[in-house]
Write a structure and sequence with these properties.
By secondary structure, this protein is of the alpha+beta class. It is 17% helix and 33% strand.
């Protein structure tokens, strides 16, 4: 039978820290080292010795020591700094991107494909200083601001700082039908090797090529390990199909001598939303309840009274603020509400 557990929390800045009550139930020691709860101990073949429930720590809250199979659900943690007003209209105010990279200073987002299966022209879609919301990226999900107008080669440059080494390089060389690219000089070979060395730590390396002369040589490519000096070998090409689905297919390069830009890229299925209203001044509509709105008025009055040295007004407004915030908290508690008669009530 599972033991009952009680949790509480405290606020640390804008984060929530969870703590668990030591009820004396389930606490103890394992015959094997490095196991802190009964389930893990016994699953590993150890013997769990329960501790006495009358210890000095019983009833105190501590950092949780045991795992929860289905996790903990935390509600009402939303702190509004922007409103997402995107309609979700693909290629209108909603876009899919294949990954990200850098120009040496700023974060870049890459896309390729769509109905025409070509480099996407984004020049009419994103404008400098626009706000966008990024999802689907483990590292970059969140709010970003566009630095410059979208390019005609499927690249959006953001104001977010990102410095990859190397980030990009324009290399003169030859694409071949065996899915390779070779530098045509010692300098070009050195540029290719610099890219390969910088990506050696990654299980799978990618490059984004936006401006090759042949459409077959443009897009996001997965690379394979290549020991030939000055040579890239392309394994797969990642695109968006006409339905907006991410598609991986074998690379099929066209033979051509070319001068192409190679971006050090990371493949992620990224969604980008336009139509973002960001908190900037008093005209922004805050998503707060009526209790919170009224409490905020009393809080401002309390701060003004404090600045004026009027202790009586300060205490009055601060108490009103706390009372309204308490009502707000109480309004979110689930369950029935009961009213009990007082001692002198008629029964």
């Amino acid at each position: 039978m599972a033991s009952s557990k009680k949790y509480s929390y405290y606020l640390r800045g804008n984060q929530i820290a969870l703590i668990e009550e030591d009820t004396g139930l389930g606490s103890g020691t394992c015959s094997l080292s490095n196991y802190k709860n009964q389930a893990a101990c016994e699953n590993a073949g150890g013997t769990w010795t329960a501790a006495s429930s009358s210890g000095s720590d019983t009833g105190k809250y501590k950092s949780p020591q045991s795992s929860i199979t289905n996790g903990l659900e935390i509600e009402y943690t939303y702190s509004p700094t922007f409103n997402l007003q995107s309609t979700g209209d693909e290629a209108g105010d909603f876009w899919r991107f294949l990954g990200w990279g850098s120009n040496g200073t700023n974060l870049l987002l890459f896309t390729y494909g769509g109905p025409a299966q070509t480099v996407r022209d984004l020049s009419g879609q994103f404008a400098a200083d626009d706000w966008i919301y990024v999802s689907g990226s483990g590292r970059w999900s969140g709010l970003h601001q566009v630095k410059s107008t979208g390019s005609t080669t499927g690249i959006v440059t953001l104001k977010t700082r990102c410095n990859l080494k190397p980030s990009e390089n324009t290399i003169i060389g030859t694409f071949a039908i065996d899915e390779t690219f070779n530098g045509n000089s010692a300098a070009a070979d050195a540029d290719v090797e610099a890219f390969k060395d910088a990506q050696a730590y990654r299980d799978t390396a990618y490059v984004f090529i936006p401006d090759a002369a042949s459409e077959s040589n443009c897009g996001l490519f997965e690379l394979t390990a290549d020991t030939t000096v000055g040579e890239f070998t392309f394994a797969n090409k990642i695109t968006l199909d006409s339905d907006g689905d991410y598609t991986v297919s074998a690379a099929a390069n066209a033979a051509a001598s070319d001068t192409a830009t190679f971006y050090n890229a990371f493949y992620e299925q990224i969604n980008v939303y336009e139509g973002i209203e960001v908190l900037q001044d008093e005209t922004f509509e805050l998503d707060i309840s009526r209790y919170q709105a009224n409490a905020l008025v009393y809080y401002v009055k309390a701060k003004l009274a404090e600045d004026q040295g009027d202790l009586e007004k300060y205490l009055y407004n601060k108490n009103q603020f706390r009372a309204l915030m308490q009502r707000h908290e109480s309004s979110r508690i689930w369950g029935s509400r009961r009213v009990f008669p007082g001692i002198g009530a008629i029964r």
